[in-house]
Design a protein that fits this description.
single chain, 326 residues, mainly alpha, two-stranded antiparallel sheet, two-stranded parallel ribbon, elongated, binds heme C
């Protein structure tokens, strides 16, 4: 009768020892980054990021899952790394993009900036979190996030040690890269405006993932003097700043889509101006074969803007305001 408990002990004890050994290797794999980093020295930057914060119980390290929170666990990895990969791989032999993102979202889904990830252009096109975020890299001075920075450039206007967000973006967005280097541009390469000043890279329901509902609200955010209300509005301005301006850059001054007067004449019929106020030989332009001998000197340089200088709207009384001339 006594043999059964002995037999149970005979099998159970080694089993328990075996299981607890497995378990402790698993715990080690989860809890002790030092063991992993003894081989993976080049990944140690993670410990300097918010993911390495011991004081934050929500961070991987604070939760005792320094590496496993993202990579999962393979208890046999240490013994034979090449044959025992981790369940979650971001680099070599990567798992599908969507599954990589889900790992990050297991902690970050509650972040309101990420609320439209699924419907955003990046999410829908299989861009991964780690295409922009280098979670193992120590953020450069003055920022909390390290970027992957696909296309590092040495800019003449900034120190090379500061990592600018746009460098990561233009690694994929070549067209935008061309635009922000045109003669007139938002000071993005100068480091004063970032791509995410206007866009939410994590997705938004707006046109082109801009941060505000409409383009105008987006622009007013920094150019509040253009908001009005004005006594005399210029309907084109109220409607959309992009009727006249390019958001990233332009070869014309002041980010204009076209040069003045052509810009204005897209909407305004030149034949109505000068009208009766000026004589027939003073057109906007010199038209070959027309009675006009010269182009009107009033239209040189700033052209229409010589007179219509309150182009975004005017509060001046009477006809001066009405015609946006002051
Ligand atoms: C917050 C999630 C996260 C945590 C925590 C994390 N990693 Fe990573 N790891 C990544 C991502 C994402 C990559 C892909 C490369 C990149 O973005 O830097 C990666 C890449 C790696 C690589 C390169 C192999 C490859 O896939 O190309 C190794 C090795 C690695 N991690 C080891 C570790 C170790 C060791 C720890 C614990 C100290 C750890 N990781 C913690 C997310 C994480
Ligand atoms: C004995 C040295 C050593 C230790 C300790 C070690 N690794 Fe590795 N690890 C390697 C080597 C070598 C590779 C490359 C294997 C290959 O791709 O052939 C690797 C690959 C990886 C990779 C990329 C491939 C994969 O498995 O996804 C990750 C992630 C990784 N290790 C994480 C960890 C974590 C987490 C720990 C701690 C639990 C750890 N490593 C401990 C040597 C080690
Ligand atoms: C175990 C939970 C956990 C996982 C998994 C995780 N994170 Fe985090 N992450 C945190 C915590 C906690 C912070 C610090 C507080 C915060 O910003 O929410 C943080 C911070 C960050 C930050 C910096 C935030 C800032 O305010 O500067 C970025 C970027 C980030 N995580 C990206 C990622 C990416 C990319 C992945 C997937 C590869 C990932 N995280 C996976 C918990 C996690
Ligand atoms: C297209 C590039 C890009 C992708 C893809 C991306 N991010 Fe970001 N992320 C950024 C930029 C840029 C910032 C800095 C925003 C700022 O300064 O306001 C940022 C900031 C963050 C922050 C900290 C600030 C905040 O908004 O709370 C967290 C956390 C974060 N990202 C997590 C993620 C996660 C998780 C994913 C994947 C689901 C992801 N990111 C995908 C570019 C990206
Ligand atoms: C890994 C490559 C990659 C990186 C890095 C990247 N993007 Fe994208 N982006 C894409 C893809 C792919 C699309 C969807 C296809 C398209 O519209 O070109 C997209 C779409 C967009 C759109 C929407 C365009 C539209 O017409 O609606 C915006 C805005 C955008 N990205 C901004 C950014 C910003 C800002 C950053 C940096 C914080 C960034 N992207 C970094 C690949 C990338
Ligand atoms: C001043 C605000 C602002 C900044 C800064 C900005 N964008 Fe845009 N972006 C816009 C607006 C507005 C649109 C919509 C353009 C349209 O509808 O013609 C747009 C459109 C886009 C598109 C869609 C394709 C296109 O050109 O219409 C991409 C991609 C894009 N931006 C990427 C970027 C990247 C990358 C950066 C940083 C280098 C950046 N943007 C900086 C406002 C901005
Ligand atoms: C994040 C703030 C910000 C937002 C949003 C913003 N701008 Fe700007 N804008 C700037 C800054 C900064 C300058 C440079 C001012 C300077 O150099 O004095 C500038 C300059 C300009 C200029 C003059 C360019 C030149 O060559 O002198 C125009 C035109 C302009 N912005 C239009 C727009 C339009 C249109 C939008 C909306 C699509 C917009 N801005 C959104 C910050 C912003
Ligand atoms: C009808 C065409 C038109 C529209 C629409 C328009 N602008 Fe302009 N904007 C101009 C012209 C022309 C200039 C150059 C004025 C000059 O050189 O004196 C200019 C110059 C600017 C400047 C730089 C000089 C300054 O006055 O500060 C900013 C900033 C600007 N616009 C912002 C905006 C914003 C924001 C909107 C949308 C609310 C907008 N613009 C809509 C035509 C337009
Ligand atoms: C996208 C079309 C568009 C562009 C471009 C445009 N405008 Fe206008 N503009 C309008 C509209 C629409 C009105 C209102 C017309 C009306 O009330 O009969 C208007 C009104 C005006 C008025 C007041 C006229 C009145 O009868 O009240 C002046 C002056 C004017 N624009 C000058 C300009 C100048 C100068 C430019 C170039 C810098 C320009 N506009 C570019 C659409 C445009
Ligand atoms: C020499 C000053 C001056 C210049 C230059 C000028 N305007 Fe005018 N414009 C006026 C005045 C003053 C009025 C008020 C009505 C009038 O007296 O004809 C006016 C009226 C207008 C009107 C409203 C009346 C109408 O005919 O519809 C528009 C639109 C207009 N201008 C557009 C333009 C455009 C576009 C240009 C450049 C191609 C331009 N103006 C150049 C002075 C000028």
């Amino acid at each position: 009768m006594a043999s059964r408990p002995i037999a149970v002990c005979f099998f159970a004890v080694p089993l328990i020892i075996f299981l607890s050994a497995l378990r402790s290797r698993e715990v080690l794999a989860q809890a002790d980054p030092a063991a992993c980093l003894s081989c993976h020295k080049d990944q140690a930057g993670l410990m300097d990021t918010m993911h390495g914060a011991k004081s934050d119980p929500a961070s991987p390290v604070g939760a005792g899952k320094a590496c496993s929170a993202c990579h999962g666990v393979n208890p046999n990895h240490v013994g034979n790394p090449a044959a025992n990969k981790h369940p979650v791989r971001f680099g070599k032999g990567a798992i599908p993009a969507r599954e990589q993102t889900e790992v990050c979202m297991s902690c970050h889904a509650g972040n309101r900036h990420l609320a439209f990830w699924e419907s955003g252009r990046h999410g829908r096109n299989d861009v991964r979190c780690n295409d922009c975020h280098a979670v193992h890299a120590t953020p450069s001075r003055g920022s909390t996030v390290a970027f992957t920075r696909r296309d590092p450039t040495v800019s003449p206007v900034i120190g090379t040690e500061r990592q600018l967000e746009y460098e990561t973006c233009i690694g994929c967005h070549k067209q935008t890269k061309v635009q922000i280097n045109k003669p007139s541009h938002h000071p993005i390469v100068e480091g004063k405006v970032t791509c995410s000043s206007c866009h939410n890279p994590h997705g938004a329901q707006s046109h082109a993932m801009i941060k505000h509902e409409t383009v105008n609200i987006q622009c007013w955010n920094c150019h509040s003097d253009k908001r009005g209300p004005f006594l005399f509005q210029h309907p084109a301005v109220e409607e959309n700043c992009l009727s006249c301006h390019a958001p990233h850059g332009s070869s014309h001054t002041k980010l204009l889509n076209e040069r003045v007067p052509n810009l204005c004449q897209d909407c305004h019929d030149w034949s109505r101006h000068p009208g009766t106020a000026y004589s027939g030989d003073q057109g906007f332009i010199r038209i070959p074969g027309s009675p006009a001998k010269t182009a009107n000197t009033r239209f040189v340089a700033r052209s229409c803007l010589n007179c219509h200088n309150a182009i975004h709207g005017s509060n001046a009384p009477a006809s001066r305001g009405k015609y946006l001339t002051r």
